[in-house]
Amino acid sequence: MLQVRMLHILGNKMAGAPGLPKWLLDCKSQITGYPEWGALTRELFDAIQQQLTESKITYFTDLSEAEKTLFMQRAAKAIQHGKSFRTLQTSVSHSLDQHLNNQVARELLEDFPVITKSDLVLNHARDGAVALLKKWPEMKSKLHLCLNQALPDRLRQIAWKLFLHNPHLKKQYVEILQSEPKNVMSILDLEIVQKCEGLLEEEYTFQELAGSVSILNAMKSTLSYHHARKRTQTSLHDTDYMLVVPFLVTSLATVHPDQLSHRNSIALLIEEYITFMKQRPGYMKESWTEDYKEGMQNFTDSVASLLEKYDEELATHLKNLFSPTEAKKSSKRKSEMGTRETLVAGLKGLIRPMVRCLFVGYLQLDTVMYIWDQYIIGLDVPEYDIVPVFTVITLMLLREHILECDIPVGVETVLADHAIKLKKEQYMYEINRNFYTDLNALLNKDRNDMPILDPTQSVGLPGPWTHWSSERIPPRQKAHDRRLAREEREAQRLRSVQEQREAEEQRRQQELQDRLEEEERFQHQMAEDRKRIEEERMYLEDQLEFEKKRRAESERQAKEEIEQLRREIDELRKMKERPLGTWPEETEPPYQPPSRESKEQTRPPPSAATHDTRTWGNPTPPGGPQVRTPPPGSGRRKHAETVTLNLLERVMDSINYLGHSESRERETLDRETRTNLKEFNRAFDEAQNAVLGRKLRQEEWDEMEENERSEVTEKVMDVVWQKYEDKYAESLPQ
After folding, report:
1. In angstroms, rounded to a whole number, what is the distance separating the alpha carbons of residues 237 and 245?
2. Which of 34, 288, 308, 373 is the most exposed place for a label (fewest CB within 10 A)?
3. Domain end point (choices 443, 465, 482)
4. Segments in the chain below pLDDT 50
């Protein structure tokens, strides 16, 4: 009875179904007639019978469907390395090759196709794989063998459908469409239509999709329903529009553009698109989502590690490129400019726009579809993420253009202008050369998802779920062996607990050490800041003292000059006031009464006491210097000397007032002078850093030649005046 039931199950697995190619059905019929097939089924029967006996189960039909599958899988795993299995595997390969080639040869003789024999073989193999996947969707993990291979259109369509399958979403959309059609349309439907039309017409990589009303309607319907499910009034992101395009291309592989707007096609688009949007990794989502920050940090770290591993020169160039400007100026060697943290921080902003849309719009659609194939066939393996690999390959393929860039913006321009020229064959070559081994190891691990059997049905045996990943069924053990195994497991558990405690203690000690080092660094930084502030204060005090001395010296010199002028005037006055007998005798003309005209001509000019002509300077305070009025009867020359003396005194008073002012005005002037001196010294130091790369000491200025000192001073002052002009321009009203 068991053997009949087992053969019935195996027969169902190999039975034909509508849609299976004839050559595949013929191959199945031939395989079931091989002696190797009978030998394998007998071994499989014995393995299942042994499990039933050990589990004390009489009939195979008494098991549930999950238990039957478990017994079958365990039995198959037990015999998969035996001689019968290897012999049957060789016979199956030979039979497949024979029937496929016979079918191709028949078509070449009868139909005279225009394509080559290789294309016919690939087409029939594709049709067979598609038919098997439609009949047994659980075999989608076999698509892992297509790593680094561009999937044919029909195979891509079924692969995406299997990995993004979500019948609940599709059913929900159909029910809403039938009951309340308005609810599948967004309140921003008009805006979505306009953006979809503009994107298809303006984006260079989407030219093959532009101009079709059905494609536009399908794209709009998908995005409109996606926005309606969000229940928000804000517009969709540009990324949402970009990510729907590959699904349109996949649907067009087997559907005419006019049929794309049908309800079933749109329902499939919505199912795949929304499922993809939900399963996106954190680094592809918006920055306010919960898993974005950690996901983006891990992603960028992976990209930086791969870039440093496979193209160290490019990684070093990007480090230096993303280094701050101050670090570039102060660094002595170019290789010391950037660090890994600098590379990670720079890559975040550089690759985020390209990764958010998963290369849509940056690469040609053919290349984008190949990248999406490699990403989607690994959705069932959480550890597998190929997006960092493609990101690194993109940078490596554009390395010649990136190495010519001097600023980070130039790298963004390279990605926008030259990435579209890359071909999928270039990516396939780089993956095959550098990354295939690691990716294949991640993608094709032994992961047989086996149902769990009730442990009460296997008394005395280890649980079947314990060793489900092992290659062979573990042998039965005696009580003594089981006791030793328990003791060993307990000892291992205690060791693990102890190791965890030690690791935790080590982590705490490390955190404490890091905290102490951080505090020490902070104290050191504070001490350096205090020292710098004290040095600046002393420097400013020295500058202020120097300015005071210079001003006092200027006042002293002005006073000395005034005193000198006064002495000279006094001496001149004394010489003019000598007795008449001391002057040489002169013959006086006879006295004549002065006429009216002569009186007007000899009338002395008004003195400062009667008519003050000063229009600027400090007004003369009460009790200040008095105006000297020439005594009556003095000559014209004496009067002129007196007027000149008064004028000089007023000029000196005005100069002194303009230069130093007095009382509060003088204090304000001193304060403004100190502020301007401080600003000028800061600007002068910054100008030295900009021109020379550092601040020169006084000894270095003194050691310079006169010509060199003048040239350097002129360059520095040009930068200083340019800073003042920029500051003045910013202060002007716009």
Report:
1. 14
2. 288
3. 443
4. 1-17, 326-327, 329-336, 448-474, 580-627, 630, 633-634
CB atoms within 10 A of CB 215: 24
What pLDDT is recorded for position 367? 94
Q: What DSSP character marks residue 281? A: -
Quick: pLDDT tens for 550-572.
Answer: 999 989 998 898 988 888 888 88
Task: Determine the Cα–Cα distance for residues 199 and 188; give it in Å rounded to an integer.
Answer: 16
Cβ-contact 688, 696 below 8 angstroms? yes
Same domain (yes/no): 63, 34: yes
User: Residue 676 belongs to what domain range?
Assistant: 665-731
Other residues' Cβ atoms within 10 Å of the Cβ of residue 310: 18
Return the beta strands (E) in 339-487 as ranges: none
Three-state secondary structure of 614-634: CCCCCCCCCCCCCCCCCCCCC
How many domains would you assign to the chain?
4
Q: For residues 683 and 728, give the distance between their C-alpha atoms in angstroms, rounded to a whole number.
A: 14
Residues 324 and 439 grouped into a single domain: yes
- Per-residue model confidence (pLDDT) at position 631: 53
CB 360 within 8 A of CB 243: yes
| Cβ-count burial 368-392 (b if 16+ within 10 Å, e if not) | bbbbbbbbbbbbbeeebbbbbbbbb
End of a domain among 114, 135, 156? 135
Quick one: 267 and 297 in the same domain? no
Same domain, 303 and 438: yes
> Cβ distance 163 to 379 under 8 Å?
yes
Residue 725 CA to residue 734 CA, distance in Å, equals 15
Same domain? 303 vs 359: yes
